[in-house]
Amino acid sequence: xxxxxxxxxxxxxxxxxxxxxxxxxxxxxxxxxxxxxxxxxxxxxxxxxxxxxxxxxxxxxxxxxxxxxxxxxxxxxxxxxxxxxxxxxxxxxxxxxxxxxxxxxxxxxxxxxxxxxxxxxxxxxxxxxxxxxxxxxxxxxxxxxxxxxxxxxxxxxxxxxxxxxxxxxxxxxxxxxxxxxxxxxxxxxxxxxxxxxxxxxxxxxxxxxxxxxxxxxxxxxxxxxxxxxxxxxxxxxxxxxxxxxxxxxxxxxxxxxxxxxxxxxxxxxx
Length: 270
Known about the structure:
Layout: E1 7-10, H1 14-25, E2 33-36, H2 40-50, E3 53-55, H3 58-64, E4 67-70, H4 77-84, E5 93-96, H5 103-108, E6 115-120, E7 130-136, H6 142-152, E8 156-160, H7 166-174, H8 176-193, H9 198-219, H10 223-229, H11 236-246, H12 249-269
Parallel strand pairs: 1-2, 1-4, 2-3, 4-5, 5-6, 7-8
Antiparallel strand pairs: 6-7
Helix pairs in contact: 7-12, 8-9
């Protein structure tokens, strides 16, 4: 079903590139992809690396493709939508990966009945291991949702949510890689502080986070149960956990997600 559709990207940044890589790895033909990107150097890179068609004309991408993926910053959303929205003809599907911009706001800039789906992926899409959430607009169909999932499952895992939860998704998984990478950096710094070479400390920290996440996903056990298995009475782990509790580690993480969620809501109001 997907291979029968042409796909156009407005915006050729990292997330668009990740989706292109996933589509090509999944057998989608490069001939079916077009990217509109203002930067000439970036256009040249995408064309040479992936064999996709490139242009600087957003309107031609909208006119010439069945699926249009809005891979632009929310700060320029309405400028781009005012330029292109009227050109969305019946039968086209709009997929937005913009933080904070609701499907209703996109629909308002397009002809009545335009089908819109909002997706929040995250940067692990660059290694085809993203966490993405999908929310459908009022005119999108079940077939549209399945088509969208078939794209984003090529770069990771997907969850369907109500759109009212998308700001929380943005705060958790959209911004989450930055929190995790900060934690890995801190673990590595702590290892260096205690005498480990930097490369060893960083490797141990990154693999520990990767392996712990895989353990959680593959066993399906609650994080608290898995944590208990490594926390011996009177041992080293409980001593470290005690400090995390004293310093409000969990509360700080929750506050970070709250702040990012609130910012996503603010972006949607502009």
